[in-house]
Amino acid sequence: MRILFVGNSFTSNNNLPKLLKDLAGARGIEIEHKVISVGGASLRQHLNAGKALDAIANGGYDVVVLQEQSTLPIKSPDRFRESARDFHKAIAAAGARTAFYLTWARSNAPETQQALTSAYAGAASELGGTLIPVGMVWERFLAAHDKPVLHESDNSHPTLAGSYLGACVFLIALLQADPVGIDVPVKGLDDDTKALVQQAAWDICNDLV
After folding, report:
1. CB-count burial class (<10 Å; 0-12, 13-18, 19+) for 172
2. Rama region for 95: left / alpha / beta (φ>0; ψ in -120 to 50; rest)
3. Sheet holding 32-37: strands in order across?
4. Please, which residues have CB within 8 angstroms of residue 40's CB and are 6 or more apart in sequence?
5. Cα gap 198→102, rounded to integer Å
6. DSSP 8-state symbol, 29
7. Which of 14, 23, 131, 149 is the most exposed place for a label (fewest CB within 10 A)?
8. What are the backbone angles phi and psi of residue 36, rounded to the nearest 5°?
9. Pairwise CA distance, residues 100 & 120, whole Å
10. Which residues of 94-115 are buried (b: 16+ CB within 10 A; e: fewer)?
11. Among candidate residues 13, 167, 186, the one with its CA nearest the CA of residue 101
12. What is the spatial distance between Cα 94 and Cα 101, in angstroms, rounded to a whole number?
């Protein structure tokens, strides 16, 4: 499967696409991926820059994953939806599938998760895209577990454990594969943490269906 990721540091930090590639490989799914990431960038900025549109048109991707600037769907859901529609038009024209990387609320503003969830889920429903509910899974994980910590000290960016939880959700929601029991080493995560995160991702995603 060829996947293009369009987003910012929530995608590129801790190399989320590589974490997903390694998990998928353990389940016999080969992934080739490209990441177009600019720190703090919105989808509109990516549209205006043109690089992502060129990659979509010419890259032969099966799936394009869209990740909006972290607070824009809260502050301006209409702008997010407009950008999502414009991207989806280009993605569909290229014969690819649109996926939405639903991100998480900042740790000091957990009440904003509902707005993020509504914006992303609404876009996925309207456009027939695949929703990858990472933020929803984070929300439930944080309600049940003190460790591992998912947010960095800036209250926003993901720790390695946070990105690994996200990669497990991608494996489930995008590739319909089970992360439980995958023993691929991840430098910086011990086996117990990996096992906890894998099982939590699987249980929560199944509960969300």
Report:
1. buried
2. left
3. 32-37, 2-7, 63-66, 97-101, 130-132
4. 8, 9, 69
5. 18
6. -
7. 149
8. -115, 105
9. 7
10. bebbbbbbbbbbbbeeeebbee
11. 167
12. 20
Residues 111-116 have a mean pLDDT of 98
Q: How do residues 173-183 score in pLDDT, each as one tens digit? A: 999 999 999 99
The count of residues in the chain is: 209
How high is the pLDDT of residue 63? Answer: 98
CA 73 to CA 119: how far, in whole Å?
Answer: 6
Rounded to two decimals, what is the model's pTM?
0.97
Q: Which helix (H) or strand (E) holds 76?
A: none
Q: Mean of the per-residue pLDDT values for the chain?
A: 97
Kindly list the distances between the CA atom of residue 186 and the CA atoms of 108, 164, 203, 205, in Å, as whole numbers in the listed order: 28, 9, 21, 22
Q: Which residue has the tokens 């309207």?
A: 126
Cβ distance 189 to 161 under 8 Å?
Answer: yes
- Residues 112, 74 contacting (CB under 8 angstroms): yes
Long-range contacts of 195-198 (CB under 8 A, 24+ apart): 196/145, 196/148, 197/141, 197/148, 197/161, 197/164, 197/165, 197/168, 198/168
Here the tokens at position 53 are 């549109």
Indicate the angle between helix axes 51-58 and 77-93, nearest 10 degrees: 30
